[in-house]
Amino acid sequence: MTTFKDLNLTKQLINALSDIGFENPTPIQEKAFPVIMSGKDAVGIAQTGTGKTFAYLLPILRQLTYSEQRQPRVLILVPTRELVVQVVDEVAKLSKYMHARCVGVYGGGNINIQKQKVYDGVDILVATPGRLIDLTLSRTLQFSSIQKLVIDEVDEMLNLGFRSQLIKILDILPQKRQNLMFSATLNEDVEMMIENYFYKPEYIELISRGTPLEKIIQQAYHVPNFYTKVNLLEHLLKHEKSFSKVLVFVKNKKIADDIFKALETEFSQEIGVIHSNKSQPQRFSAVKKFDEGTHRLLIATDIIARGLDLKDVTHVLNFDMPSKEASAYIHRIGRTGRADKTGIALSFITKLNLPMQKEIETLMKKKIELLKIPEAVEISENLTQDEKPVTRDKSLKKAPKHITPSGAFHEKKDKNKKVNLGGKRRQENLRRIAEKNVRNKPF
Ligand code: AMP
Fold it and tell me: Is 127 helix (H, G, I), strand (E, B) or coil?
């Protein structure tokens, strides 16, 4: 078995790894190391929980030399604030015995404090795209010394609508740089990005796309509605001792809050909720309490939970099934069964979700085991407003075809399709910076 000593790491890195308690590289770490060290562009496709963060951090830190220059040489882009904090934390652990100045910047954090940190000098900058652009526009940050770019969870970044920001950043960066991308899945959008901005990238692919981790036991209940789901969850929390660290995925913020309200009386001290309407301190606190084991349950929307490395999650519960992409299911269940642990993925599947269940099973080439709802669980007949069938008022006539409806569904005009980057001046500034770096589409 390969050990970290076989990887030509420095003593400082080996010692840091040994302090963390890691001896052997994971397969993605072993495969990525020589490729990244060679300076080539690389695309790493590995499921979450495989150690992909260290897969790019190890060679980056191995090649980082001491410098007093202030502007960053490595840029790591991630989709969420939580991931910024997580990656900064991982860098701190690995660089314990070496000199590496790592700064994390993200929207919602105090920009002046972040500006000061950047001004004080940084080797590795970890950022969300929006805040990165703000810092560039304020001239605090310059890209001219960036030698390596890592885009982590790029598919999620595109899902979240960061496309134009990402392209702006790619256009401003110096032409001569190493591009690295790590993600759990590849889709058309991601492939387009690679085609336009990467130079002959080497693909580091561990598993065929869509294959679930073998260590995850996958089970499901067919459940008719929201209130029955709540009853079932309550029953499981009361009777299943193994339910000690449960990450619950829901389709939107309202459902997250509704579950909390429904379970509040009995379990309020054991439940945390995280979604984009929560303040940043609330978000950090919810993740911390869950990770440390103070909370038994973390109710989360996809956007927030993506990429978070949570220790020893015993169960992932799809309270709501993903509604758009079957691959989201794979991302979610990857939150359990991480590193060398086994985990259980449970899904509450309604009639509406049946096509999605099929799609997921086809993608995984595997059936999800169906469990019987325990007798003691009350099957509720109550329906939420969203679940009630829509009754059409026959007295309402259809609008004649030639009249364009004024609702939210008509096609946006081209000029309105653009993501708002803050007006003409901001755009102009970005263009100037891009010109200065003499970089447009690189390859
Ligand atoms: P990631 O896929 O980067 O989110 O990492 C998943 C988990 O695996 C994290 O908790 C890491 O700390 C852990 N991990 C990373 N590398 C190793 C390793 N070589 N041996 C054991 N665990 C690791």
Answer: strand
